[in-house]
Amino acid sequence: VQLVESGGGLVQPGGSLRLSCAASGFTFSSYGMSWYRQAPGKERELVATITSAGGVTNYADSVKGRFTISRDNAKNTVYLQMNSLKPEDTAVYFCKRSGITPYWGQGTQVTVSS
Fold it and tell me: C-alpha distances in angstroms, 48 versus 62, 76, 94?
């Protein structure tokens, strides 16, 4: 199992980024996926989840209305579209595969700063 995140970077407040998580080594369309984030000195927190077929999504209150999780099962990829970014969104963002044995990617840094 391999999860590789990309798309992070430095963005100004109010800007947008789209994160991608490319999956391999398992049947991607059979698993729910999630995005988490961890800011310096803080615990890792759940940002958004999506079911295996993409029909149901859930979001942390702090990102509702600004972030959108989606997936393309043909490309084995899950996305996180982040709009109206705030400095408090600064963190390392990780994707995670659901299941009895969870798998994590290595993370991608998102920094929101002017």
Answer: 10, 17, 11
How far from each other are the two terminal CA atoms of the chain, in whole angstroms? 37
Nearest to 20 by CA among 56, 74, 67, 70: 70
Spell out the SS3 assignment of 38-102: ECCCCCCEEEEEECCCCCCEEECCCCCCCEEEEEECCCCEEEEEECCCCHHHCEEEEEEECCCCC
Of the chain, the percentage scoring pLDDT greater than 70 comes to 100
Say yes or no to pLDDT of 54 above 90.
Answer: no
Alpha-carbon distance 73 to 61, whole Å?
26
